[in-house]
Amino acid sequence: MQRRILIVEDNGVNRNLVRVLLQKYGYQIIEATDGEEAVEVAVREKPDLILMDIQLPRMSGYSATGILKGRRDTMDIPIIALTAKAMIGDREKALKAGCDGYISKPIDTRELPKVVNSLLDRERPRGGDG
Ligand code: MN
Question: How far is CA 42 from the centre of its chain?
Fold first, then answer.
């Protein structure tokens, strides 16, 4: 079964880079370009994983992550934060918002698929205690 990944990124060049990279690994890609669209698409499509830019129009990646992690129907979707600079504190903010992983830009094209794969592999069947 082909895994679907939602890429949330307002920068078209970065979005294309990540899409082409992940398509090479066999993932199906869906996209959103701002924080509000990210929430809408994630709720509707239930992707297997989300790559979430932090600096986004309309709603930040932190806020979008907070909303998705607060909803029962999307809380189990792994979210990897993408931030422009490895600023001190960004990792903590991303994790506090509920992100499951963190990658700093510019994107390391070998690191990204590894982080994606490891988070998808971590998925396991869940019991009824949701
Ligand atoms: Mn951005």
Answer: 10
